[in-house]
Amino acid sequence: MINIEIWASGSGTNADVICQYFHxxxxxxxxxxxxxxxxxxxxxxxARNDVExxxxxxxxxxxxxxxxxxxxxxxxxxxxxxxxxxxxSEIIELFPGKIINIHPSLLPKYGGKNMYGEHVHNAxxxxxxxxxxxxxHEVNAEFDKGKMLAQYATPLDASDKLSDVKLKIQKxxxxxxxxxxxxxxxxxx
Length: 189
Description:
Elements: E1 2-8, H1 13-21, E2 28-35, H2 42-48, E3 52-55, H3 63-72, E4 77-80, H4 89-94, E5 99-103, H5 117-126, E6 131-138, E7 148-155, H6 162-188
Parallel strand pairs: 1-2, 1-4, 2-3, 4-5
Antiparallel strand pairs: 5-6, 6-7
Helix pairs in contact: 1-6
């Protein structure tokens, strides 16, 4: 069995979809979920899906502790699903080409440090873009610069507000992220 650990920082809607997608999968399972925010909704997602969850407190955010944490769970791949911290370069080296992230824009537009969630959507709206989308990419040492794996776009209307953009992006994420993870893992295994 191939073991995934999801890293998340927020409500966990993508983590929920991923857990459900792989629930009865014959070869891939969500082994655990880790989060860097104690009060995040993703802990409710882990309980609802009967997946072990861990709080990655700031003092444990170092190579030695993370390496031990991942080894104890026999993690093969890491999935960043709304995770807002830069992954330590030593972990990237330990999991070369085995960490995937989803970003709420069509990279390279609106990527980089501090470009996440509503910051991205507001920038898209401020620039009067006619479409936006999501990008799934492998993680390297820079924010949003890893090898692109897939992109999906959605049109925007001139009347779209922030809430409309958020819903359109979430629909794309929930439709495409889990199948992209599966295809990526199959290609690597």
